[in-house]
Amino acid sequence: MPKANGGPGQRPASEGNRGEGWSDGDHADAQTDGGRMDAPPLVVDVDGTLTRPDAGARARSVDPRAMDALYEWPGTVVVATGKAFPYPVGLCGFVGIPETVVAENGGVVLAEETVRYAGDPEAARAVAADYEDAGYDLGWGPADTVNRWRETEVAVSHDAPEEPLREIAAEHGMTVVDTGYAYHVVSPDVDKAAGLREVADLLGLDPRSFVAVGDSENDAPTFGVAGRSFAVANADETARNAADEVTEGVHADGLLEALELVRQEDI
Ligand SMILES: [Mg+2]
User: What is the CA(60)–ligand 1 centre distance, in A?
Assistant: First the structure.
């Protein structure tokens, strides 16, 4: 049963409870069992997992088959990413599913019209300032759309030097997570698993009921919390070791393979 878009993107996520902005369509009807529908809830990464494997200009572009698969998933879908908060919210809107996200590697979550924060954004910004004072650049160009709307952490380009970033982060009690696409300066107690627990709490679901799919070390904590986990074939070693299963397909092919497997076994 496809989910109807409840239309929460019509107004700020921080405003109030589900009300006039929501339709009482398929989604509301289907959520009568604490968010459970006909399949286990999903928690999926974006970069390296929903994407095309192409190099060059289309690298990191989302495979439309993955968007359809998320829309058609007959259960709750949580988009969990290292990207800044607006990106997964936008993706939910473009896919047509309720805005249910873990953003910024767990620094901020949104579910059921409620936003929750974790981490130490001031410390992350202090690391970025010291890094720049030391003569380095975050590596995103003047507009820096990677960090412009980021609320709880700072991301640094893979083209920027890693070691001085790790040293400066440690001086501020922060840690650096490599998502395979960027270095993220985060609080040590913040990760996608903590974010998943928050979202599950807001949805009234058991985190262990989730099926997780991802590709990098920032997904490994989620794999430890979710009841079942898949690393796509392009995943890094940390993610592969943490996952229950590794797909044969890479990127979105791997996601589709995992979802098909779960559905077949679930029937
Ligand atoms: Mg990823």
Answer: 10
What's residue 31's pLDDT?
Answer: 41
Segment holding 157, helix H or strand E: strand 154-157
- Mind listing the pLDDT tens digit for each residue in 76-135? 999 999 999 999 999 999 999 999 999 999 999 999 999 999 999 999 999 999 999 999
Rounded to whole angstroms, how far apart are CA atoms 252 and 148?
A: 27
At 267 the pLDDT is 63
Same domain for 105 and 39: yes
Q: How far is the CA of 7 from the centre of ligand 1 (A)?
A: 27
Alpha carbons 184 and 154: distance in angstroms, whole number: 6
How far is the centre of ligand 1, averaged over its atoms, from the C-alpha of 47 (Å)? 4
User: What are the residues whose beta carbons fall under 8 Å from the beta carbon of 65, sequence distance 6 or more?
Assistant: 252, 256
**Residue 189: active-site member:** no
Among 168, 186, 204, where does a domain finish?
186
Catalytic residue among 24, 38, 45, 266: 45
62 and 128 share one domain: no
- Quickly list DSSP for 126-141: HHHHHHHHTT---SS-
Q: Determine the Cα–Cα distance for residues 213 and 224; give it in Å rounded to an integer.
A: 12
Assigned domain for 1 exists: no
Angle at 222 between CA 220 and CA 225, to 5 degrees: 120
236 or 30, higher pLDDT: 236
Does 241 lie in the same domain as 179? no
Share of the chain above pLDDT 70, in %: 86
Number of domains in the chain: 2
